[in-house]
Amino acid sequence: MATQALTKGDLATLDVSRGELYADDSWRPLFAQLRAEIPIHYCPDSVFGPYWSVTRYDDIVAVEADPQTFSSSFEHGGIVLFDMQDTNVKLAMFIAMDDPEHGAQRKTVAPAFGPSEIAGHAVALRERTARLLDSLPVGETFDWVERVSIELTTSMIATLFDWPWDDRHRLPVWSDWTAKIDIGPDPVLNAERETHIFEMAAAFKQLFEERKAMPPKGDLLSIMAHSEVMADMDEQRFIGAIALLLVGGNDTTRNSMSGLVEQMNKFPDQWERLKADRSLISTAATETIRLQTPICHMRRTVVQDTELGGQKLKAGDKVALWYNSANRDEAVFPDGDLWDVGRSNSRRHLSFGYGIHRCLGARLAELQLQVLIEELLARDMTVEIAGEPERIPSCFTRGFHHLPVRIRKG
Ligand code: HEM
Hints:
By secondary structure, the chain is α+β, with helices and mostly antiparallel strands. The protein has helices spanning 8-12, 20-23, 28-37, 57-64, 101-109, 115-134, 144-161, 170-179, 187-213, 220-225, 235-266, 268-276, 281-292, 323-326, 362-378; strands at 40-43, 51-54, 70-71, 141-143, 297-302, 306-308, 311-313, 318-322, 381-385, 390-391, 400-402, 404-409. The protein is built from 15 helices and twelve strands.
């Protein structure tokens, strides 16, 4: 679709954080123009206040490689455009900390994401996925988000925490409220958000104390409860650690699973290609995560005056790293809007970030998506979009509230 380029004046005040751009999926040409004309762009006014946008691949890598200048710390406002330091939930999580505290906490939970731990989840994951796909109606319209994406990712997270199975449906509710950054400064919605977060913290705290009193085992709560670094966190750090592991693993993987359906519908030739050549499945999973970019941005705060791409950034400035844009940077990914299941450099995508904060759950996310693709192919299932998708109106979580689909065999 040809879209009119913005004038210089409109570009100068462009605000790519507006939720409607993501609700109606109209953000692509705006970022393409920014990459071409003002790759480091200053937005003077938004619901989140003024902020810089970094839109090219190499510039994002440069920022993430320099955490001394570009801080992630919650004390400066954290990792999303919305400043949380002035609210009752600061989300003091290690993704929103600088070293050394970040490194110490990351090291504590990292063993839960090691290769043998991930491999240990594979059999049960495949069984759950197979059972779920076998239970889906063929030829009837249903919501893929509710029935598949949420169900599978919630089950995985419940397993990681060894969370009471029958109570697992509370997890995505808390996760969704925690990730709602676009409510910005709205006091009523923020109060509601805080109510959910404190309820989540209380429920997890009870389980955490129980695990502490039990001999150590491999789940995330037990690992934290028996560690030197995370056993006695203050309230904000406890909430932060839980929120990170819950949101980190939930909304992101969920929206990749929904993104997979969108891609197979937009690019049926690539789905046929996968059917004919199963050796492409791993690349297809990676390519889905590149194209979906479930986290649109991470934010950093400048802590010492610096220069980036010829622009002068001052201490205190907010910087949004737009992964959705970098993943389509023409210099790295030719025809970046295409789902190319044989793309040779798909793995270079920035959906998992880069540097010291690169996603700890990346391998687990890829595995979940790979297994889903494998099991769909094994059943010769094609998932057809059967109605208008409802997209999340957010510049942070990129994905779907609802995605009506119909399954066809063959
Ligand atoms: C497709 C799925 C996923 C995407 C797109 C994703 C994306 C991200 C991004 C963008 C970051 C920040 C990177 C940076 O600042 O450079 C991150 C960090 C993180 N992710 Fe993921 N993630 C996914 C799945 C998961 C899963 C399944 C888990 C585990 C339950 C997880 C846990 C984490 C943790 C703990 C961090 C913090 C790492 C640190 O600060 O050192 N993520 N993820």
